C-alpha cells in the first residue's frame, strides 16, 4: 500500500508553474540606462529562458528586448534576433544606439557576420523562408500579437520555425487576457505547456458548439497564477513597486461621429418585414454593404474633422481599399498612404516620416501599421473612418499615439453610421472588459511580484481540506478525496464496486488538485489511479466484482498533430491499470451511444465532411462497463467467498403458477434479458409510407426497435426508413430516431439514456454532472453482482446515482465524492431513496455497519 506522504507529494506535484531554463544574470552588469522595472524584467526573463513580456505602451519593451538579447549573447555566444512588424526597425536602431549596440536589419541570414550586432527582421521575411532560425541563440518576437492577423498556417509556420531556439521571448502591449487561444498559443510556442493540455486543464467546452471555450470558473485562480509564472502583465512601474513618475498617460477623449442617411427600403427575406434602417451587425454581407454605401459620407465627415484641426498632424485609420482611395482623393499629396501591396521600403519611408513629423497626414489600416510603431511624438489626434468588431486592431491603433511619452491630450474620432450602433457599443464593451481583466492580472503581480515560489505557495491552498460525512440507515456518503478515504476502509469489507471513473484528464469535476481529472496527461491520471486501485482491490471481498464505466477518448487534430481526429483507447488503458493491481477482466459490456448527439458536441462525424472524404471519418464512440473480479480465496470451485446467489423463479405447468414472486425470484426470461440485453420483436414487416405519416416520432422509434430486432439487419431498409422520415420532416437533427438495434449479448442498446439523476439536476437548475452513469445500467449491475443487504461502493459518487439505486434495491451504499456541490445533491437523492425503502422493508435490511 502506498503511503499518505507519497500521495500528498503526488498531489503537490500537480501544481504546474513555468520551468526555469535560462541563466542568472548579475544585476550590476546591466546597462545603467535601464529603469528599475526594465531591469527586473530583464533579470526575470533571462532566468526563465522562455518568457512573455506584456508591458503597456511606452514602458520600454524595445530596450528590454535589446538588453535581454545582449546579455544572453554575452553569456552563451551566437546571434540574437528581434522579429518585428514593418515600420518598427527604426525604434530598435534608435534605442540600440542609446545602449551602445549596433542594430542591423537583415532580409536573409546570409547577412549574419558579427555576434556583437543585434539583428532585426520582419515577419514577412520569416514567412518567405528567408531566415534560418537554427543560427540564433536567442530570438524575441516584438508585437507578437500581430501573428493573429496572419492566416493560421502562416502563424503556425512562424512559431514552428523558431521553437527549437534555446532562448525565446514574445512581447506585446495588448495581449487581450480574454483571448485565451492567443495566450495558450504563446505558452505552446515557449514550451511552457502543450496547447492541448492547456485547453483541457483550464477551459470548459460548450457541448453545443465545438471550439467555443471559456475559462472554467474553478480553474481561474490557477490559470492566472500559472500565466504569471511565465508572462508579466505590466501597466505601469508601480505594478512592481516603483514610482510612476514620468509614466502618466495624458487625457484621452473619444469623440463619436454618428452618421445618418436615407437608404432604400430593405425587406428581410425570412420575415418579409421591411425597414428603412439597416443593421450591419446582423451579418458580414450586411456590414460590407453598409461600408460600401457609406464611404462618401464617412469621408465627408473626415473632411469636417480635418478642417477643424488644420494645425495638427493626424493619423487616419481605414479598413477598405475603397476608403483609402477616397481619403487620398480628398487630401491629395499632403496625405501619405500605406497599403499592403506597396513596396516595403516605400512603406517604411512613409511611416518613419510621419513618426518624425515630416508627414502631416498618414492613412493606413490597423492590420498594417497598428502594431509596434511609435507615433506619439508629433501626433496626438487620430480618426477612424470606419469600425468593425476587431477590438485588438482597434485598441492597438489607438495606442500608436496614446502611450507613455505622449505630452499632449489625445483625441480619437470614431466615424460610424446609425446601422453600426451595435458594433460601436460592442467595441466599447470589449474595451471595458479588457481593462478589467488586465487589472486582475496586475493585481497578482502587485501581490507577489515576479516570485514564482509565492505563486506555488498560494496554489497549495487548492488542495482539498474539510472532510464531511453524512449517514443514513442504509448509506454513508463522505465528501473527501477517495484515495484518502479508501485508505481507512477495512480489508475485504465491500461486496460490489460500481463507478464511472473520470475519463483521464478530459474533464475536471472539482476545483481541487485532488481531482483525478486535474492531470496534465492520461499517464499522470493513471499514476493517480495507481494510488486508488490497490485500495479498491484490498477492500473488495474475495471473488467479488468491480464494475467500471469508461469511454474511449477523442484525440482532436490539434492534440495529435495529424490534421484529423483519432481515438485514444482509454478503455484499454483502464484494463491494463486494473490488471496490473491484481484484478481479472471478466467481460466488456458495450453500451451504444447516439452518433448524432456526439457529432453535435464534437463536430468530428459531420455528414458534409463525410461526403467530402470518408477516410477521415470514424464512428460514434460507445461506452463500456468493464467487469473486473478479485480472485476468491480458493480456486476449488471458483465461487466467491460470499457468492452472489439468485432464487430461481420457475413456471410450474401442473400448478400453473410461479415458484416465487417477481421481486425475489430470477426467471429464465430475466436471465436471458440480462445476458442478451435486448427485447424480442413482434416480427412486423416494413411499415408503409402512409402509416408512417400517421405515426408520431415516439411510435416510430418503438416500431423500429421491434422491426430491427426481429429480422436480419438490412442497411438499405434502414437507410430507406431514414430517408422517408427526412422526406416527411420527421428526421431529428439532435438525436437518432431509429438507432441500430444490437443482437450481441455484450451490447446493451435499450438503455434509457435520459434516465439519470443528472436529468433531475437539469430540471432543478442545479449544477450539471458531467458524463453520468445511467440508472438502468447501475440497476442491472447491482442485480447481477450483489445480494440484498450487500454493501455497494462508489469512489466517484458524483450526485449519488450508485447509492440511490443500491438503496432502492435493498442494498447498503458507501460513497465518496470530492466535489462538495455534487456531494450535497447526492445526499438528497440518498435520503429520498431510503425513505421509500425503509417504510417498506426496514426490518429486512441490515443497518449500515
**Fourth-tier CATH superfamily name of the largest domain:** Vaccinia Virus protein VP39
Structurally, the number of domains stands at 3
CATH architecture descriptor text of the largest domain: 3-Layer(aba) Sandwich
Q: How many DSSP E strands?
A: 32
What is CATH's topology name of the largest domain? Rossmann fold
Shape: elongated
> What's the assembly state of these chains?
single chain
Portion of residues in beta strands equals 15-25%
Mean pLDDT: 81
3D architecture notes:
This protein is an alpha/beta fold and 849 residues long. It has three domains: 11-240, Tandem AAA-ATPase domain (Rossmann fold); 252-448, P-loop containing nucleotide triphosphate hydrolases (Rossmann fold, 3-Layer(aba) Sandwich); 468-644 and 751-844, Rossmann fold. 39% of the residues lie in helices and 18% in strands. The strands form eight sheets. A nine-stranded mixed beta sheet has the order 18-19-32-31-20-21-25-24-30, sandwiched between helices. It has a seven-stranded parallel beta sheet with strand order 3-4-2-5-6-1-9. Helix 6 (152-162) links the parallel strand 5 (136-141) and strand 6 (167-171).
Summarize the structure.
This protein has 30 helices and 32 strands. By secondary structure, it is of the alpha/beta class.
Label this structure with key terms:
3 domains, single chain, methyltransferase, transferase, DNA_methylase_N4/N6, nine-stranded mixed β-sheet, Rossmann fold, Helicase_ATP-bd, P-loop_NTPase, 849 residues, elongated, alpha/beta
Amino acid at each position: 500500500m502506498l503511503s499518505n506522504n507519497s500521495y500528498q507529494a503526488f498531489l503537490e506535484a500537480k501544481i504546474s508553474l513555468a520551468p526555469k531554463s535560462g541563466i542568472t544574470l548579475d544585476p550590476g552588469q546591466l546597462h545603467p540606462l535601464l529603469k528599475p522595472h526594465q531591469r527586473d524584467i530583464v533579470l526575470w526573463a533571462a532566468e526563465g529562458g522562455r518568457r512573455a513580456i506584456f508591458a503597456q505602451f511606452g514602458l520600454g519593451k524595445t530596450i528590454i528586448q535589446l538588453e535581454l538579447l545582449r546579455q544572453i549573447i554575452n553569456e552563451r555566444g551566437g546571434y540574437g534576433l528581434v522579429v518585428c512588424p514593418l515600420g518598427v526597425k527604426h525604434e530598435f536602431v534608435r534605442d540600440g544606439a542609446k545602449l551602445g549596440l549596433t542594430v542591423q536589419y537583415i532580409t536573409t541570414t546570409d547577412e549574419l557576420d558579427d555576434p556583437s550586432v543585434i539583428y532585426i527582421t520582419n515577419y514577412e521575411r520569416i514567412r518567405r523562408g528567408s531566415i534560418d532560425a537554427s543560427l540564433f541563440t536567442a530570438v524575441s518576437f516584438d508585437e507578437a500579437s500581430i501573428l493573429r492577423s496572419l492566416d493560421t498556417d502562416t502563424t503556425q509556420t512562424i512559431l514552428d520555425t523558431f521553437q527549437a531556439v534555446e532562448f525565446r521571448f514574445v512581447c506585446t502591449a495588448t495581449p487581450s487576457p480574454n483571448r485565451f487561444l492567443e495566450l495558450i498559443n504563446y505558452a505552446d510556442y515557449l514550451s511552457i505547456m502543450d496547447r492541448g493540455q492547456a485547453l483541457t486543464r483550464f477551459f470548459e467546452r460548450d457541448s453545443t458548439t465545438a471550439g467555443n471555450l471559456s475559462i472554467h470558473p474553478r480553474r481561474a485562480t490557477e490559470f492566472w497564477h500559472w500565466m504569471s509564472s511565465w508572462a508579466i502583465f505590466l501597466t505601469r512601474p508601480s505594478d512592481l513597486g516603483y514610482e510612476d513618475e514620468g509614466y502618466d498617460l495624458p487625457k484621452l477623449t473619444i469623440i463619436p461621429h454618428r452618421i445618418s442617411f436615407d437608404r432604400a427600403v430593405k425587406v428581410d427575406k425570412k420575415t418579409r418585414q421591411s425597414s428603412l434602417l439597416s443593421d450591419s451587425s446582423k451579418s458580414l454581407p450586411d456590414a460590407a454593404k453598409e461600408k460600401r454605401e457609406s464611404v462618401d459620407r464617412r469621408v465627408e465627415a473626415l473632411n469636417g474633422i480635418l478642417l477643424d484641426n488644420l494645425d495638427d498632424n493626424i493619423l487616419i485609420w481605414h479598413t477598405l481599399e475603397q476608403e483609402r482611395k477616397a481619403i487620398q482623393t480628398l487630401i491629395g499629396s499632403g496625405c501619405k498612404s500605406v497599403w499592403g501591396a506597396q513596396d516595403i521600403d516605400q512603406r517604411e519611408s512613409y511611416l518613419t516620416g510621419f513618426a518624425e513629423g515630416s508627414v502631416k497626414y498618414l492613412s493606413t489600416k490597423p492590420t498594417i501599421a497598428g502594431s509596434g510603431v511609435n507615433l506619439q511624438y508629433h501626433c496626438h489626434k487620430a480618426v477612424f473612418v470606419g469600425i468593425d468588431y476587431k477590438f485588438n486592431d482597434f485598441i492597438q491603433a489607438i495606442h500608436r499615439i496614446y502611450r507613455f511619452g505622449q505630452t499632449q491630450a489625445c483625441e480619437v474620432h470614431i466615424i460610424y453610421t446609425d446601422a453600426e450602433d451595435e458594433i460601436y457599443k460592442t467595441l466599447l464593451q470589449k474595451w471595458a472588459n479588457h481593462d478589467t481583466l488586465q487589472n486582475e492580472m496586475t493585481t497578482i503581480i502587485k501581490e507577489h511580484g515576479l516570485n514564482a515560489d509565492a505563486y506555488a505557495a498560494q496554489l497549495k491552498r487548492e488542495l482539498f481540506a474539510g472532510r464531511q460525512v453524512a449517514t443514513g440507515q442504509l448509506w454513508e456518503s463522505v465528501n473527501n478525496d477517495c484515495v484518502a478515504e479508501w485508505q481507512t476502509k477495512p480489508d475485504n469489507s465491500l461486496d460490489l464496486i460500481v463507478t464511472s471513473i473520470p475519463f483521464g484528464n478530459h474533464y475536471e469535476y472539482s476545483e481541487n488538485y485532488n481531482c483525478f481529472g486535474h492531470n496534465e496527461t492520461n499517464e499522470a491520471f493513471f499514476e493517480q489511479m495507481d494510488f486508488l486501485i490497490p485500495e479498491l482491490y484490498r477492500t473488495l471481498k474475495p471473488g467479488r466484482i468491480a464494475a467500471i464505466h469508461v469511454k474511449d477518448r477523442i484525440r482532436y487534430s490539434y492534440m495529435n498533430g495529424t490534421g484529423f481526429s483519432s481515438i485514444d483507447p482509454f478503455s484499454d488503458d483502464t484494463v491494463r491499470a486494473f490488471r496490473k493491481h491484481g484484478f481479472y477482466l471478466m467481460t466488456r459490456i458495450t453500451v451504444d451511444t447516439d452518433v448524432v448527439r456526439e457529432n453535435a458536441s464534437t463536430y468530428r462525424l459531420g455528414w458534409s465532411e463525410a461526403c467530402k472524404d470518408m477516410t477521415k471519418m470514424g464512428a460514434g464512440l460507445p461506452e463500456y462497463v468493464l467487469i473486473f473480479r478479485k480472485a476468491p480465496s480458493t480456486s476449488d470451485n471458483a465461487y466467491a467467498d460470499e457468492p452472489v446467489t439468485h432464487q430461481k423463479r420457475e413456471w410450474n405447468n401442473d400448478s400453473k403458477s410461479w415458484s416465487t414472486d417477481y421481486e425475489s425470484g430470477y426467471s429464465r426470461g430475466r436471465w436471458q434479458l440480462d445476458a442478451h440485453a435486448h427485447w424480442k420483436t413482434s416480427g412486423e414487416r416494413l411499415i408503409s409510407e402512409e402509416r408512417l405519416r400517421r405515426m408520431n416520432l415516439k411510435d416510430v422509434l418503438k416500431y423500429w426497435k421491434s422491426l430491427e430486432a426481429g429480422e436480419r439487419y438490412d442497411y438499405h431498409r434502414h437507410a430507406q426508413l431514414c430517408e422517408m422520415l427526412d422526406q416527411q420532416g420527421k428526421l431529428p437533427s439532435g438525436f437518432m430516431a431509429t438507432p441500430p438495434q444490437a443482437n450481441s449479448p455484450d451490447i446493451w442498446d435499450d438503455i434509457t439514456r435520459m434516465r439519470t439523476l443528472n436529468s433531475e439536476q437539469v430540471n432543478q437548475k442545479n449544477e450539471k454532472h458531467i458524463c453520468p452513469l445511467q440508472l438502468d445500467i447501475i440497476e442491472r449491475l447491482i442485480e447481477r453482482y450483489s445480494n440484498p443487504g450487500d454493501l455497494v461502493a462508489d469512489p466517484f459518487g458524483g450526485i449519488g446515482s450508485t447509492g440511490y439505486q443500491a438503496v432502492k434495491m435493498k442494498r447498503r451504499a458507501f460513497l465518496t465524492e470530492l466535489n462538495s456541490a455534487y456531494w450535497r445533491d447526492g445526499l438528497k437523492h440518498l435520503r429520498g431513496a431510503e425513505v421509500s425503502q425503509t417504510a417498506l422493508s426496514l426490518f429486512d435490511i441490515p443497518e449500515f455497519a
